[in-house]
Design goal:
Largest sheet: none
Mean pLDDT: 92
Radius of gyration: 19 Å
Low-confidence stretches: none
Order of helices and strands: HHHHHHHH
Structural class: mainly alpha
Strand content: under 5%
């Protein structure tokens, strides 16, 4: 029952994350006005705000103007629900809430970057402040490891941005610095490896299928977020396996 409750909580909070994804990039308030259709501006009723269910019952369209509802809305809700369940099963007690907050912010960052190819500074600052606060009140890493994580993550991407002359965005550099402080240098290196591996494979697939051309930009933030999730849940096991091998 608790797992189901956590999943429902994730669905509900996923609906709020959709609001963040849509409004933060536009500089709009997250509180007012109430949820509305992006196409016609009609205020949504309570029955239209049920995560995933309302999307299916409405035939994936707005009841007012019949404009198709973006696939991102149910996807983010489902991802958040499944993410919360995975975190609940892996992290006990207070750690669940800390990780849930971290990955909720990362999920918003990933989808904003995916849609607009930008990582808002305010979200990166929020992550950095959160990581520092947790390290001060409930440290999980030696300070040396956390600080080296900043250099390993942000420093490496900064050098890559300089060498590539803008091929790597500043938002990616700042995000990786914040994640490096949270993960420490060892998991940060693994995170980077996973992000480049997943990004490279995705790029090859996009080129092979004709979805992208060689000079078309591909946002890197979603791969950093996916790498962070894998490193956070299974990073220690991966590193032990690698060292044994």
């Amino acid at each position: 029952m608790l797992v189901l409750a956590v999943f429902v909580l994730g669905l509900l909070l996923g609906s709020f994350l959709n609001v963040c994804i849509y409004r933060l990039h536009r500089g709009e308030s997250l509180i007012t006005p109430p949820s509305r259709c992006p196409a016609c501006g009609r205020r949504l009723r309570a029955g239209e705000l049920i995560p995933v269910v309302s999307y299916l019952l409405q035939g994936r369209r707005c009841r007012g103007c019949s404009t198709p509802i973006h696939w991102r809305y149910p996807l983010v809700e489902l991802l958040t629900g499944l993410l919360y369940v995975a975190l609940y099963l892996y992290y006990p007690g207070v750690d669940f809430f800390l990780q849930a907050f971290l990955y909720s912010v990362l999920l918003v960052i990933a989808f904003i970057d995916l849609e607009h190819q930008i990582i808002p500074n305010r979200l990166v600052l929020l992550l950095g402040a959160f990581a520092l606060l947790v390290q001060l009140l409930r440290p999980a890493l030696p300070w040396g490891s956390a600080l080296w994580g900043v250099l390993a993550g942000g420093g490496f991407l900064f050098l890559l941005a300089v060498v590539s002359r803008g091929g790597m965005g500043g938002g990616d550099v700042k995000l990786m610095a914040a994640l490096g402080f949270w993960y420490g240098w060892q998991l940060t290196l693994l995170l980077l490896f996973l992000a480049f591996l997943l990004g490279g494979l995705t790029g090859i697939i996009l080129l092979a299928t004709g979805r992208k051309k060689r000079k078309d930009p591909v946002p890197f933030g979603p791969f950093l977020v996916l790498g962070a999730f894998i490193a956070g849940l299974w990073g220690e096991q991966i590193l032990r396996w690698y060292l044994r091998w």
